[in-house]
Amino acid sequence: MTYFAPTALSDALSLIASHDVSIIAGGTDVFPAQGRDPLQKGLLDVTRIDGLTGLLWTPDELRIGAATRWSEIANTKLPNYFAGLQEAARTVGSVQIQNAGTVAGNICNASPAADGMPPLMTLGAKVEISGPNETRQMPVEDFVTGPRQTQLRADEMVTAILVPTLPAHSGAAFEKLGSRSYLVISITMVAVVIGCDARGRIDFARVAVGACSPVARRLMTLEADLIGQTPQKVSVTSSHLAPLAPITDIRADGDYRLEAVAEQIVRAIRRAAHANG
């Protein structure tokens, strides 16, 4: 097993092209998945690459470097519409995992229960992908195509998550259901971004659900129906949840997951609206 720790993106891309490597930052997904088996690939540590860590504001967006730790997301002062992502950051594993695990690693692992996916979707986040010939972007929901499957090509790596500026009056919330607070795979999770006008009626709405389908889903019909409602009068119907396909497993059955999600959505909407009210 060979370990590489380049400091330049160009060197990292050259190593990806010339060696059979697994890209790691915190390694919080790679090493547990390996179990007791010996590593078959080299390791490419991207945490020393210039520009891949930290948060950088531009006039139009927040750039989150691919190797940015969850703990930095949780502890940085950000606009209210980032509250859902920050709440998710505080529930990713334990504090030790939050200090090692990265935002980009969470989505590249492409677990149906990835805590980062629903809040990033409600933020309208894009994934920046760099390869030998181009740098491209795509919405985070298009990047993850299925369990452990992404749009990342063999000669590419994720270099940043890009979050556009959202309406200043919007707030956010994240709800996670698990058997305990930490070190648990989610049974269900919900993220929302909600804005209310001067009359207290919803004028901006995004809702995403994780752990209830092969990939996290935006609930577009529900988002449209929320416009013009007051948060206290919100209700969620079975038709709103139609994009979801929850499984029955050792943690919960599918029907329970749908019932839990409906309640989580209502709670999250009211919390998000109150936070910026």
UniProtKB/TrEMBL annotation:
Keyword vocabulary terms for this entry: FAD, Flavoprotein, Oxidoreductase
InterPro entries linked to this entry: CO_DH_flav_C, CO_DH_flav_C_dom_sf, Diverse_Substr_Oxidored, FAD-bd_PCMH, FAD-bd_PCMH-like_sf, FAD-bd_PCMH_sub1, FAD-bd_PCMH_sub2, Mopterin_DH_FAD-bd
FAD-binding PCMH-type domain mapped to chain residues: 1-168
SMART domains: CO_deh_flav_C
Alphabetized PROSITE patterns for the sequence: FAD_PCMH
Sample GO molecular function, one term: oxidoreductase activity
Keyword Flavoprotein listed: yes
A UniProt-annotated Pfam family: CO_deh_flav_C
Presence of the UniProt keyword Oxidoreductase in the record: yes
Annotated protein name in UniProt: Xanthine dehydrogenase family protein subunit M
Organism: Parasedimentitalea marina
